[in-house]
Amino acid sequence: MHNDTGQQAFDAIIEADEKVEPRDWMPDGYRSTLIRQIAQHAHSEVIGMQPEANWITRAPTLLRKSILTAKVQDEAGHGLYLYSAAETLGISRDELQELLHSGRQKYSSIFNYPTLSWADMGAIGWLVDGAAIMNQIMLQRTSYGPYARAMVKICKEESFHARQGYSIMMTLAQGTEEQKALAQDALDRWWWPSLMMFGPHDAESPHTEQSMAWKIKRVTNDELRQMYIDQTVPQAHYLGLTIPDDDLVFDEETGHWNIGPIDWDEFWATVKGNGRVSRERIAHKVKAWDEGAWVREAATAYAAKQRSRSESEKEAS
Amino acid sequence: MSYEVPLAPGEQPDNLDGEATSAHGWPLWEVFVRAKRGLSHTHVGSLHAPDAETAVQNARDGYTRRAEGVSVWVVRSVHIHASDDASSMFEPFEDKPYRHPTFYEIPDEVGQL
After folding, report:
1. Nearest-CA residue of chain B relative to A269?
2. Residue of chain A with shortest Cα separation from B68
3. What is the tens place of the pLDDT at every residue in A260-308?
4. Are the beta carbons of B33 and B72 closer than 8 angstroms?
5. What dihedral do alpha carbons A265, A266, A271, A275 form, nearest 10°?
6. Which of A94, A143, A165, B108 is most solvent-facing, going by the fewest CB within 10 Å?
7. Taking CB atoms and an 8 Å limit, are A28 and B44 in contact across chains?
8. Strands A256-258 and A249-251
9. Are A108 and A172 in contact (CB under 8 A)?
10. What is the 3-state secondary structure (H, E, C) of A269-311?
11. Residue of chain B with shortest Cα separation from A265
């Protein structure tokens, strides 16, 4: 559908750095790009509950268990805010869910790595949520109003996620040799996947240019990745841990940390669904949905009963 | 968390046009939260629920886990009627500057007015 007046109004909103709202005219490509991006973001929050829920029953203390439970609950909440934003674009929740279950829409590859030790709870909060925060702070300024508003709320909560993760890492890094080794092992396994979360290099990211023009994205993949590296390397040093990259070097001239090459073969293999636990993640999600059917049926039946009861009371009076 | 998954080489993007195709499932409710006494309820998002009671409960769990509010409203989304924001509905105000206090120049000697 083309609409000259609509296009002009849309261009003016983008140009003026204002927000596009659900009832505004928008180009079809803008709408479908946003649906895809917000849906993937929502799916990531929901699937992201699995690697951490894996450790709730084995958290080392009651406090850590309460914290981890609260964090996993937040991820469910983030999924809700994002699905809610996606629905303003005209797609239904059922449809989004079906797209995830059938594998037609993806979620972040980072969740296709297994969580092998308690230290992974620290590494995920610190590194994975840390990377997510970089991305989401940028997205608070995205041009689509409902998405930007969801990001503001999510960013407030993510700060807790990152800090509780770093707190776990500090405890382990200051603990016994065995605990320190667990922390190092977690960093070794999560460092490169978290760098890959920012996506391919700008030169290999053909959609970046259009997304930047529409102001959906405000900063490129490589720029965000570099900001993350510069922030995170000193945090690893503070813990007394070693970043698993022999080429890592501080460039005095630019003030940036330079990293070695990223293994993009691993990245693309994971994106294509060949991650170590890709199949388990979706199978588990579908199972949870199917096994929850009786809860949804009961809630629907209860609501219907309440309605018919209040109607018959009205008739009687 | 956040993420944008790139298309694998050769992969075609979904062409989602935003036309909802499924209508089953629970109705959509818009959620409004009063942050503290003295403030209006503000729209914070939406959720699906089978009835108002459950919608309020879910809004509490979904949108106020950290003391963000002291009161919640839920309204069925279909009951909200919106203006046509692209129309000239709001334009008449542009040419009536005399409705604003700053339109009138009052000498300083007059004092607070």
Report:
1. B8
2. A153
3. 999 999 999 988 888 888 899 999 999 999 999 999 999 999 999 988 9
4. yes
5. 150
6. B108
7. no
8. antiparallel
9. no
10. HHHHHHCCCHHHHHHHHHHHHHHCHHHHHHHHHHHHHHHHHHH
11. B8
Which three-class secondary structure state does DSSP give residue B23? coil
> Model ipTM?
0.86
| Residue of B5, B20, B24 with shortest CB distance to A90 | B20
- A95, A110, A208: which to substitute to probe chain B, counting the most B Cβ within 10 Å? A95
The whole-model pTM stands at 0.90
**Which residues make beta-bridge pairs with B31?**
B45, B74
Model pLDDT for residues A232-259, shown as the tens digit of each residue: 999 999 999 999 999 999 999 999 999 9
CB B52 within 8 A of CB B74: yes
Instruction: With beta carbons under 8 A apart, name residues in chain B contacting A90.
Output: 17-20
Dig out the tokens for A127 from the structure.
Answer: 């590194």
Judged by CB atoms closer than 8 Å, whether chains meet at B50 and A302 is answered as yes
Domains of chain B: 28-86 (3.10.20.520)
